Each structure stands twice: as C-alpha cells, then as structure tokens.
Amino acid sequence: MTDALPARRLLLVHAHPDDEVTGTGATMAHYAASGAHVTLVTCTLGEEGEIHVPALAQLEAAQADQLGGYRIVELERACAALGVTDHRFLGGAGRYRDSGMMGLPTNDNPRAFWQADLDEAAALLLEVIREVRPQVMITYDPNGFYGHPDHIQAHRVAMRAAELAGDEGPQKIYWTAMPISVLRDGMEAFRELSDNPFADVERVEDLPFGHPDDEIAARMDGTDHYQQKVAAMRAHATQIPDNSWLYGIAGDFGGEFMGVEYFTLAKGTRGPGEGPHNWESDLFSGLGLEEPATASVPAPAQPSAAEATAR
C-alpha cells in the first residue's frame, strides 16, 4: 500500500467530528496541499454534541438520536474543504459512541469510547498504522488538551497503538498545544470581542490548557490555508454557531490566530528549527523527507456557508 502513497505521510487521531479543524485544520490543509498523504482517524460520531442549528434540534441524543449520522456528512465536507481525502472512523462509523463531557451519565454507556477496551481500540488503530505507515502522528496530550474523556481516550489509544506498532510506527508523535504567550496575547485581543471566550478568566495560568513556550516543539504556519480552515469550520454548522468567537478571530485577525498551530513533541528527535525558540516549522523536520518546493495538489474550492449546512 505504502508504495503507492506519497513519501510523506501524516496520521491524525481525533475524538469527534470538528476536533480536526480547530487545532489542526491549517496543518492538515498545508500538508494535503504540499502533496503529503494525510490520514484522519476520528474515534466517535459525536452523538452527544450540542446542536446550534435550531431546525436540527430533534437530532439530539435525547430525541431522535441521529446527530452522529448527520455529523458524518459534516465531517466529509470539512475534509473536502481541507483537501483531505483519507478519513476513517476508528473501527468503522458508530463502533464507539461519544462519551459526553466528563462526569456525565453518558460516560457509563457500554458503547461510550471512554469505556472502550484500550488494547482492542489500539489494535483497530494499529491496522491503519500498518496500512499507511505514517512517519508523523498527531493526537492530544494525556489530559486530552482540556479534559474531555474522549480526548483523553484518543490519546491513550493513539499512544498504545504506536507502542504496539514498534518499528512500523510513527517516528515522531506530536500533541496539540498552545503556548502560554499566545494565550496571553489572545486574551488581550479578545477583550474587544462581544463574544469573549476568556471573559471570566483573570489569569492565563488559570486556563486548563497552555504550555510554557520552551515546551513547544513546532509552530506550523498555515496562514495561507486559514480560509480553508474557516470553510471547514462552517461545514460543522451543528457544532460551531455562526456567531462563534472563532469566526470573530477569523474576521478580526485573519490567519494570525486561525492559521498558526502549535505542538509539543512526545516521541522522536526535534529537527532543525527557527526563530527565538528554535521551533520546528515542518513536522517532518529531521526525517530526511524534504517538502516539495511547490504544492503538488491544488487547494480545493471552498464551500459557501449555504453549501456547508445544506443536507
């Protein structure tokens, strides 16, 4: 299989549809446009998500319980906006159910991803790793970035699968991250927004996420693709409302915040970096797999908001 794939191969392991966009969308679009093979594995359908489209409220878990099926379509459209053609659900669509937020009764559902047998779930991901043979993998840190049980479980499954893969596994593993310096700058910038996500936060250190700058290993500048990231966000209309502060960022700051994504390095050796912190600008840095000088895959056409939300 790998003989037919591009030399550079990136695997991302996310918990729910829409998670791929917010923290890694620009990175995915960048590598897809450069000709790398990007594989996205999503662990659940996101059945317990809050619905922000009133006309679709009956899809929620407490009513028709059809949100997961709808989000499959949203994810397909988001991947199309990012130029990603290889997407899989862990074990197939619906194998694992969204666990809901930590501490809710939905955590105890026998089908919840939080209840999944670790080695069984890791074996399913191991099949993908052996098929694609990615040199680089991205997932969450041990706290799932902000503590969601499915994010934590996605981290555990990804790391266990990489362990089981041995020499066949990724040479470098990154965890999504956010430098405290960037969070601090963001808090100041967001004070001018009517929908300020940090309105109740007095100190950046009080946030449940954030890493000292010296813990960051890579800064991916995907500002050329931030409009694709915004289009992918709009594809997830049930989860990201039109008045979301994320769109405020996109409108006010463009690619400055939306197009730059950060990672810590959990496995492998840091390659050559740049800037005051010597952060990598390429996740394949140091692997001897040079990025093509020009993009070999054109950026996909961006769907309109109406197209993104249409059934």
UniProtKB/TrEMBL annotation:
Cofactors (names): Zn(2+)
Cofactor details (free text): Binds 1 zinc ion per subunit.
Matches recorded under SUPFAM superfamilies: LmbE-like
Chain residue ranges for the region called Disordered: 271-311
InterPro entries: GlcNAc_PI_deacetylase-related, LmbE-like_dom_sf, Mycothiol_biosynthesis_MshB
Catalysed reactions, semicolon-separated: 1D-myo-inositol 2-acetamido-2-deoxy-alpha-D-glucopyranoside + H2O = 1D-myo-inositol 2-amino-2-deoxy-alpha-D-glucopyranoside + acetate
Enzyme class, UniProt record, top EC level: hydrolase
Biased composition (Low complexity): 292-311
Binding positions for Zn(2+) per the UniProt entry: H16, D19, H151
Alphabetic keyword roster: Hydrolase, Metal-binding, Zinc
Record-listed E.C. numbers: 3.5.1.103
Function field: Catalyzes the deacetylation of 1D-myo-inositol 2-acetamido-2-deoxy-alpha-D-glucopyranoside (GlcNAc-Ins) in the mycothiol biosynthesis pathway.
PANTHER family for the chain: 1D-MYO-INOSITOL 2-ACETAMIDO-2-DEOXY-ALPHA-D-GLUCOPYRANOSIDE DEACETYLASE, N-ACETYLGLUCOSAMINYL-PHOSPHATIDYLINOSITOL DE-N-ACETYLASE-RELATED
HAMAP family: MshB
Family from the record: Belongs to the MshB deacetylase family.
Protein name: 1D-myo-inositol 2-acetamido-2-deoxy-alpha-D-glucopyranoside deacetylase
Highest classification ranks of the organism: Bacteria, Bacillati, Actinomycetota, Actinomycetes, Micromonosporales
